[in-house]
C-alpha cells in the first residue's frame, strides 16, 4: 500500500516537473520551388527532396542538443508550384515560424525579403548564388549560406593558379546564369594572374538531354568544337544550365583537363567529403534520407544549424535575440570544413572553404596556401569588404 | 576462444610481474596510426619504433588496461575496440563497443569501460572482465571526449556538434548536467585534485575551464601565436602534470603545444612540434611528454622539465592517439 502511494506521488511529481519544463518551441520554415532541374549526368539528377533533406537532418541534430536545454525545433515545409506566389507562401509560413530557409530564385527571394521585413522574420538564402543578393540588392534580413559565383570561381581559380595552369580556354553557355558565371571567372583570372587565351560560346539550340544514341554524336561534336584553340592549359566551362559542360571531359581536341561546370567543380559540399569529422555527418544524412548529401542539402543544413547554434548560445527562442546574436561579432558555426564559419558583417554572407570535386573525390579545398588576407583567408574568396556595394537596410 | 582468452590473461599476469621486477627506465609507447591501420610501438630508451602492429580499420583512441596487460585501441571503421596483448604485441581479442568508437575512458578499477560512439549519439558501457556490453547512455550529437572524475563518480563526455560537456553519474548512468562550451569540444581532462575540468574546443579555438561542482565555465584559455592566423589554432589533446602545476595543450594545425601555468591559466610558452599535433601522453616518471603529429607522420618528444622538444620519431601515417605502459 505504501509502495503504491509512493509510486503515485512519484508519478504526480514527474507530471508537474514535465509541465514546468515545457520546452521552448522554435519554428523553422522551409520555402522552395517544386520540381527539379534536369542534368546531363543521370547520376547527378537532384532528388525531389534536394535541400529540404538537409533541414530535416539539422532539425534532428538541433533537437538532440535541444533536449539538454529544453528547446524543441519543428520544421514546416512548403514547396511552391509554377505560377504560385512566393510572397503569399512566405507570409503564411512566417505566421508560425520566426526563421525561414529559402531556396528561391533571386527575384522571388527579394520580394519575400521585402514583404517580411516589418515582421522581423530572419530569412536564410540557401540556394541562390547570385552576387547581386550580397551586393547592390543585399538585405538586412537575409543571411546567405549559399556561396556566391565569385566565391566558387575564386576557389577554382586559386587552385588552377597554384597548379600553374594559368592559360584558360573559356567556354560559355548561352543562358544568363552561364554568362554570370563567366563574368565571375573573368574576374578571378584578373585577380589571380591567369590568362583567358580565348573565349568560345556554346549556343543552346534546344534538344533533349537524354537520347538513345547520344554518345556517338557528342563524340563527333566536342572535338570539333574545341579544335584550333590557342595554346592553353585547362578548359574552363561556364555552363550552369547543364547544356554541354559534362560532354567536354575526355573529348577536347587537345588533351587538356576540364574545370568549372564540369571536370573539376567548385562546390560548398560533396558526398565524397570525409575530412574534419564529416564522415559522421555523411553517415547520419544517408541513414535519414537514404541518399547521399548534396551541396544544397549542406547549405540548408548549415542554415538550420546556425539557428540551433544561436538558440543554444543565447539559451533563448526569441527571434530578435537569436537574430541579433547571429549577426553579432561572437557568432560562429562548425560545419565540417576544418575551420569555424562566420558571417561577413557587411553583407551577411557566410564565409566558408570551397571544395573542388571531380564527382568521386575531393581533389582540394580552397582557399589555397599562399593566398593571404589581413582579416580571414576565407575572404580571399569572393567580393571583399572594400569592393562591396552592399548597404544593409 | 574463451579458454584461449583466459590463458592470455594468465600469461599477461605473469609477464606483468616479471616486468615489475625489472629496472623501469625504459617505457613502451603505443601510437595509433589512423591512416595506416597500424599501431607503432616505441621504446623510450632508444626512442625507436621496435614494432608495427597491424590492427583494424581507422585506429584512433588508445589506452592501456589498468593492469598494464593489454592495449585497447578503438578501430572505428570496424565498429569495435581491439585488445593488443602487451607481451606478444598482437591483437588477441575485441570488445562489443557499438558503432564507430573513437575515444573511451575506464574506471579506476579497470572494470568498466565507457566508449564514445560518434555515429549514434551514445556512450556504450562495457564490462571489461566479461567483455560484454552493459548498456548505452544517450548523449549529444557526435560524442567524442571521455574522462572520469578522480573520485570515479562522474563520467564526462563531450559532444562535438552539440558543443557540450555532459556530466554523467556513473552509478545511475544518467546525465546530471550539461555545460555549453565552444565549438567542437574534443577532449576533457580533470585536474588531479578534481577542482577543475578542462575541455578543449577544436573549432572554437579555446579551452574551457569548468567548475565540476557548480557545472559552470569559470574561465577560458585563449591562444595567440604571432604570425599565425587564428583559424589554425585548434586545441585538441590536454596533458596535466601530476602536481597540477603545468598543462600542455596540443594546438592541431598550429603545429605547437602550448605550455600553460595552471594556477594563473596563462600560456607561458609555445613549443614547436610536428604538423597537426593531436594527442599526447606522459612517461610514468613524467620526464617526457610524447605528442602525435598527424600530418608529418611523427611523434615529438618533449623534455617536461626543460620544456623543450628533444626528439622526433617517424611512425605510421596520420598518428592519432598515444598511450604509454604504466
List the strand order in the largest sheet of chain A: 2-1-3-4-5
Quaternary class? heterodimer
SSE pattern of chain A: HEHEHEHEEHEHEHEEEHHHEEEEEE
- SSE order of chain B, one letter for each helix or strand: HEEEEEEEEEEEEEEEEEEEEEEEEEEEE
Q: Helical segment tally of chain A?
A: 10
Per DSSP E runs of 2 or more residues, the count of β-strands of chain B stands at: 28
What is the CA–CA distance across the termini of chain B? 27 Å
Q: Which percent bin holds the helix content of chain B? A: under 10%
State the end-to-end distance of chain A. Answer: 68 Å
Low-confidence stretches of chain B: 1-24
In percent, how much strand structure appears in the residues of chain B? Answer: over 45%
Question: Which spans of chain A of ≥5 residues are poorly predicted at pLDDT below 50?
Answer: 1-19
Percent helix of chain A? 25-40%
Structural class of chain B: mainly beta
Largest sheet of chain A: 5 strands, parallel
What shape does the CA trace of chain A take?
Answer: globular
Overall pLDDT level of chain B: 91
Structural class based on helices, strands and sheet pairing of chain A:
alpha/beta
What proportion strand of chain A?
15-25%
How many strands of chain A?
16
Whole-number average pLDDT of chain A?
92
Structure description:
A 5-stranded parallel beta sheet of chain A has the order 2-1-3-4-5, with helices on both faces. The N and C termini of chain A lie far apart (68 Å). By secondary structure, chain A is α/β, with parallel strands linked by helices. Chain A is 35% helix and 19% strand. With 326 residues, chain B is mainly β. Chain B is 6% helix and 52% strand. Chain B has 1 helix and 28 strands. Chain B has a 4-stranded antiparallel beta sheet, with no helix packed on it. In chain B, strands 4-5-6-7 form a 4-stranded antiparallel beta sheet, covered by helices on one side. In chain B, a hairpin with a 4-residue loop joins strand 1 (28-33) and strand 2 (38-43). Mean pLDDT of chain B is 91; it is low at 1-24. At the A-B interface, helix 2, helix 8, helix 9 and strand 11 of A face strand 15 of B.
Amino acid at each position: 500500500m505504501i509502495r503504491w502511494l509512493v509510486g503515485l506521488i512519484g508519478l504526480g511529481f514527474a507530471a508537474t516537473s514535465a509541465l514546468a519544463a515545457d520546452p521552448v518551441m522554435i519554428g523553422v520554415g522551409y520555402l522552395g520551388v517544386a520540381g527539379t532541374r534536369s542534368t546531363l549526368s543521370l547520376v547527378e539528377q537532384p532528388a525531389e527532396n534536394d535541400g529540404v533533406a538537409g533541414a530535416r537532418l539539422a532539425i534532428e541534430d538541433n533537437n538532440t542538443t535541444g533536449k539538454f536545454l529544453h528547446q524543441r525545433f519543428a520544421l514546416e515545409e512548403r514547396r511552391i508550384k509554377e505560377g504560385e506566389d512566393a510572397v503569399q507562401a512566405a507570409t503564411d509560413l512566417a505566421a508560425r515560424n520566426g526563421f525561414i530557409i529559402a531556396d528561391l530564385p533571386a527575384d522571388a527571394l527579394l520580394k519575400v525579403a521585402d514583404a517580411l521585413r516589418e515582421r522581423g522574420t530572419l530569412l536564410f538564402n540557401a540556394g541562390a548564388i547570385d552576387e547581386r543578393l550580397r551586393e547592390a540588392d543585399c538585405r538586412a534580413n537575409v543571411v546567405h549560406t549559399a556561396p556566391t559565383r565569385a566565391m566558387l570561381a575564386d576557389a577554382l581559380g586559386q587552385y588552377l593558379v597554384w597548379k600553374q595552369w594559368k592559360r584558360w580556354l573559356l567556354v560559355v553557355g548561352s543562358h544568363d546564369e552561364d554568362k554570370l558565371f563567366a563574368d565571375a571567372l573573368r574576374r578571378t583570372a584578373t585577380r589571380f594572374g591567369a590568362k583567358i587565351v580565348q573565349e568560345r560560346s556554346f549556343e543552346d539550340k534546344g534538344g533533349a538531354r537524354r537520347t538513345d544514341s547520344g554518345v556517338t554524336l557528342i563524340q563527333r561534336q566536342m572535338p570539333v568544337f574545341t579544335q584550333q584553340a590557342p595554346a592553353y592549359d585547362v578548359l574552363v566551362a561556364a555552363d550552369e544550365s547543364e547544356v554541354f559542360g559534362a560532354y567536354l571531359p575526355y573529348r577536347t581536341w587537345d588533351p587538356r583537363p576540364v574545370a568549372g561546370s564540369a571536370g573539376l567543380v567548385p562546390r560548398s559540399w560533396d558526398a565524397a567529403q570525409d575530412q574534419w569529422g564529416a564522415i559522421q555527418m555523411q553517415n547520419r544524412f544517408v541513414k535519414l534520407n537514404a541518399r547521399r548529401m548534396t551541396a544544397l542539402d549542406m547549405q540548408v543544413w548549415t542554415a538550420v544549424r546556425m539557428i540551433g547554434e544561436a538558440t543554444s548560445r543565447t539559451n533563448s527562442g526569441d527571434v530578435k535575440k537569436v537574430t541579433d546574436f547571429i549577426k553579432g561579432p561572437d557568432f560562429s558555426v562548425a560545419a565540417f570544413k576544418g575551420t569555424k564559419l562566420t558571417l561577413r558583417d557587411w553583407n551577411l554572407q557566410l564565409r566558408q572553404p570551397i571544395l573542388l570535386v571531380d564527382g568521386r573525390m575531393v581533389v582540394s579545398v580552397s582557399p589555397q596556401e599562399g593566398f593571404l588576407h589581413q582579416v580571414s583567408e576565407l575572404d580571399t574568396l569572393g567580393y571583399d569588404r572594400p569592393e562591396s556595394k552592399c548597404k544593409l537596410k | 576462444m574463451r579458454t584461449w582468452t583466459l590463458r592470455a590473461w594468465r600469461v599477461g599476469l605473469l609477464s606483468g610481474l616479471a616486468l615489475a621486477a625489472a629496472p623501469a627506465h625504459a617505457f613502451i609507447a603505443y601510437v595509433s596510426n589512423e591512416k595506416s591501420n597500424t599501431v607503432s610501438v616505441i621504446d623510450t630508451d632508444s626512442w625507436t619504433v621496435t614494432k608495427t602492429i597491424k590492427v583494424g580499420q581507422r585506429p584512433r583512441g588508445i589506452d592501456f588496461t589498468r593492469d598494464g596487460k593489454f592495449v585497447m585501441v578503438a578501430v572505428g571503421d570496424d565498429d569495435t575496440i581491439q585488445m593488443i596483448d602487451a607481451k606478444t604485441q598482437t591483437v588477441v581479442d575485441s570488445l562489443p563497443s557499438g558503432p564507430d568508437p573513437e575515444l573511451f575512458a575506464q574506471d579506476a578499477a579497470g572494470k568498466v569501460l565507457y566508449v564514445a560512439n560518434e555515429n549514434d549519439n551514445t556512450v556504450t558501457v562495457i564490462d571489461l572482465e566479461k567483455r560484454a556490453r552493459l548498456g548505452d547512455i544517450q548523449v549529444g550529437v557526435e560524442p567524442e571526449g571521455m574522462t572520469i572524475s578522480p573520485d570515479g563518480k562522474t563520467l564526462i563526455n563531450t559532444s562535438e556538434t552539440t558543443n557540450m560537456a555532459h556530466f554523467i553519474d556513473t552509478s545511475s548512468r544518467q546525465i546530471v548536467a550539461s555545460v555549453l562550451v565552444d565549438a567542437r569540444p574534443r577532449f576533457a581532462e580533470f585536474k588531479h585534485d578534481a577542482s577543475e575540468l578542462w575541455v578543449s574546443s577544436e573549432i572554437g579555438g579555446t579551452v574551457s575551464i569548468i567548475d565540476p561542482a557548480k557545472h559552470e565555465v569559470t574561465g577560458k584559455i585563449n591562444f595567440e601565436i604571432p604570425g599565425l592566423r587564428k583559424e589554425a589554432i585548434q586545441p585538441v589533446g590536454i596533458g596535466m602534470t601530476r602536481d597540477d602545476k603545468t598543462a600542455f595543450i596540443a594546438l592541431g594545425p598550429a603545429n605547437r603545444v602550448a605550455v600553460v601555468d595552471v594556477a594563473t591559466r596563462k600560456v607561458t610558452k609555445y613549443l614547436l612540434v610536428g604538423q597537426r599535433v593531436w594527442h599526447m601522453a606522459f612517461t610514468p616518471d613524467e620526464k617526457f611528454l610524447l605528442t602525435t603529429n598527424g600530418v608529418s607522420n611523427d611523434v615529438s618528444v618533449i623534455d617536461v622539465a626543460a620544456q623543450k622538444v628533444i626528439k622526433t620519431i617517424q611512425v605510421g601515417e596520420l598518428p592519432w592517439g598515444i598511450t604509454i605502459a604504466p
